[in-house]
Amino acid sequence: MFHIFCPYCQEYREEEEFHPSGQAHLVRPADPASVSDEEWGDYLFFRDNPRGIHHEMWVHRLGCRKFFNITRDTATYEILETYRMGEQPSITAANAEVRREQGVQTADGGWQTVGAQPENSRLNEETPS
Amino acid sequence: MTQSNRLNQGGRIDRSRRLSFTFNGQQYTGFAGDTLASALLANGVDIVNRSFKYSRPRGIAAAGPEEPNAIVQLGASEAAQVPNVRATQQALYDGLVARGTNGWPNVQRDVMSWVGKLGGSFMPPGFYYKTFMAPASMWMTYEKFIRKGAGLGRAPTEADPDIYDHFNQHCDVLVIGAGPAGLAAALSAARAGARVILCDEQEEMGGSLLDSRESIDGAPASAWAEQVVAELSGLANVTLLPRTTANGYHDHNFVTLHERRTEHLADTAAGAGREGEVRARLHRVRAGRVVLASGSHERPLVYANNDVPGNLVAGAVSVYIRRFGVVPGQRLVLSTNNDHAYRAALDWQEAGREVVAVVDSRAKPDGDLVKQARDAGIRVITGSAVMEATGSQRVSGAKVVAIDTERFVVTGKVETLECDTIASSGGYSPVVHLASHTGKRPQWRDDLLGFVPGEVKGMHFAGGVHGVYALGETLTDGADVGAEAVRAAGFEEAAAIAVPEVAVRQESPTSALYQIPHEKPPLRAPKQFVDLQNDVTAAAVELATREGFESIEHVKRYTALGFGTDQGKLGNINGMAIAARCLNRSIPEVGTTVFRPNYTPVSFGAIVGRHCRELFDPERYTALHQWHVENGAEFEDVGQWKRPWYFPQKRRADGQERLETMHEAVARECLAVRRGVGILDASTLGKIDIQGPDAREFLGRVYTNKWAKLAPGRVRYGLMCKDDGMLMDDGTTSCLAENHFLMTTTTGGAAGVLEWLELWHQTEWPELQVYFNSVTDHWATMTVTGPDARKLMSEVTDIDLDREQFKFMDWKEGKVAGVPARVFRISFTGELAFEINVQANYAMHVWKALFAHGEKYDLTPYGTETMHVLRAEKGLIIAGQDTDGSVTPEDLGMHWAVGYDKPFSWIGQRALTRPDTAREDRKQLVGLKPKDPKVVLEEGAQIVLDPEQKIPMTMMGHVTSSYYSPVLESGFALAVLKGGRNRMGETVYLPMSDGSVHQAEVVSTVFIDPKGERQNV
């Protein structure tokens, strides 16, 4: 059972509070009417299924109800980082080995680091109430 | 019976507390501190079971969880039956009743033994696959007998009287195993201030220290164990869990521990005088670091007839003598390839019994223990091994011969030594099970002749589990590893603990020895057992390799090596070594199988914990539930909700009073709504409060229809699609204020829809200012519907109910029965209807007020079944019943609820013009009217156009909803049918499984009041 660091609650919580919500970083075409049927079909139905580093969207359903992203190794079940919606992963299939050597793993017995530079700060800001 | 094998002194038992117990119907006595196994051995019980496949007599072979033979069924009463308990792990208590799991009707005279004797050579590996293959339909019959014969324990047929629970635990360091390494590691970690959990599966902590011949700081090793346990139990940051097996190691250092809390005292907690306490507890531990100090299991040697009672693992002999004061025989022959096993011979001799010989496969053993044995006058035969045991019910002798392990042949003449016990030791296998539960393969080490754990993140290894065996080194290793773990868990100052003083022993190296060559070829020699629990022989492993099973995983599955509750504790390495020899490869080349949780069997009770009976799954009740119960409602589960299904009334017929059938009740409820007035508890409908300046824009994007102009006070029905254009949910949404809406969802879809809204807001349109909150439980909803609804409502509300003032699809705020309410003029029945929403805690008051005023209108409560009939008569769909994730709004004929010209490309819009969603011949929603009005079509029935067509027929669609309508006095149905809207008036056929065929006419989905006048009065 996973131990997941919620990047919004800033705490490790048990997997039972979360559930996965599919592949992360899917981009819905901005103007659906202008894309071909095939492109729309790709957006709707085609997903990656890598062995190794994968980016997934999860939701803290029984917690803060926020969606966020996880970088996970599908072969070892290791969660390498969690990051907020709108941020980009600091660990990717291309740089995973390097990042591991740089000590991304935390020394406090934890399993994840909270990564990432906001790609788009807009997504990260609370909307004014 | 006397305890003939019990010594007068020694052991960690309490001779002043005599316990009586029953095994296989016979009464015995033992002492407090015994295990069932040690008590049986003390009483000289040789045969405890019959073997799995060959039905051979079997005795106790080991002293711990690796015991393959002494598997018992426990429990004096039916309700307290526990299957597959190892006698070596079961503490003795007064009144314990156990039977050998196998060997029905009794172990001494077994009706299955003819199979073993006659069928033995006819039962090669794969026997079941080869024999019971055909016909497939007979498998269930075969299986019944195989199971009975196979000696798997049986589950009780009565409910378990005990309770169980779960603890969620967190700690910095979890230490698994309280032997020398585990105790030292726990002490190290605890002194640094970390939260430590130390668990151990035995009755008493100390592991091998409890039967050690060695001294620590000049005192017996067991004294050091007691002293450390005492210190740890005084520390607030340490939790000690004896009788607790770490059974599963899962991802991210999640470990499941199975703690037995009353099982060592009596059959049930109540029987132990601990009524109301839990019998067993499952600890779900999330550990910062795990220190695995699970030690090692001694491997027996594989020689002929090594399963006859009286064949034991060498270490077990020492355990029984030193911990329990039991010598399991008179005359011992020890067969070994290592020094450590010599302690069995020394212990045996010191207990006053005869050691016939130690047979050592090594040419020139000269370690300290070997010298001690020689000095004690024990005969040591070198370069040799026990080739075969003689005897059938008990060992009567050992055939000893010189062997050449390189060429795998015997080289000398066979000498038969008279004895009743053969102890063997083939070295030690680290208990790597937990380290491989997450998929990490163990690594072979030639210097240790064993597998050690592969690297597991977050786990540290201490002591025997990674091949550190000598006591002094184990203590040092444990202390170091404990310190390392606690540092890794973030503790800076791990105070070094003083490692106690232990004399260093000189040991001569262990030789590699697994199977002993026999003078006859392997397939001719008497059986040499590799896996005693599953009855797998060396010949079977050899045969499997010959038949082409080269992968060890295939060998395992073909022979059953290491299967079941055993999980390869004793036999795995020997099996791999034999496979390697047959395949002419090395053991690491052959590799190892993967161990899986659980390490030892866990009772279902512990797994389930409190999640049983009424706590199995939460039940949700509406605020009116008590009224429904009192008024005799039958309930239906809708998600977790209990909803009234129908309200059967008493009726008199033929001078007898009886309850209505469901059919009668539903007909009465339907007619009441169509002719008078009915009331439904609709509180379970999902309700989501939506607020924010962009709420309206957001609704326009998630619903298919338009929301830009919906004024406060108005209500609109909306369809929600996924982005593939398929209907997902539907419901009404009301405009409460310019920036404030109330959305309703289907009962089952409430949580999913809320998450769906959050998903789109958080991931795609975070710039929209909109907020969602579930208010399902906050509001109770009552639907008052029927021609008399207005008359009834006018008596209880201050809201102007005039049809011009309060139009269909309006909502008004006011008072109902004196409490604040929102009333919605929406209809799910096709009749005039008012949906009253009040705060849930006012619901009962309002409901009762309605009935007080409703009596003169014969106000009739109705349930979900009537609701379904009424809505289906109007062709109103239920998302999830009439749709299944492959139905578009167009398929439902609901293009009126689709706003193609909205400025924003709403969810699902683009997909509706994909070629597949735009097909003409998609399945479309239609009505079906059976030609025979008495027929109610089966929901799910397939529709065909030609009932004469050969099977497989061309299936055109299926029935989604079907009921009997008391108004139409006929069955009727909704269905999806290919190109259905162009088939109006056609006849279709519905073949049933009994061979009959129903006929139905394709009609409109609206069966009653097609113009919608009745709801608009």
Automatic annotation (TrEMBL), chain A:
Disordered: annotated span: 104-129
Secretion signal span: none
**GO biological-process terms attached to the record:** tetrahydrofolate metabolic process
**Cited Pfam families:** SoxD
Q: Name one GO molecular function term.
A: sarcosine oxidase activity
Q: Which InterPro entries match?
A: SoxD, SoxD_sf
Q: Which NCBIfam families match?
A: soxD (TIGR01374)
Q: What is this protein called?
A: Sarcosine oxidase subunit delta
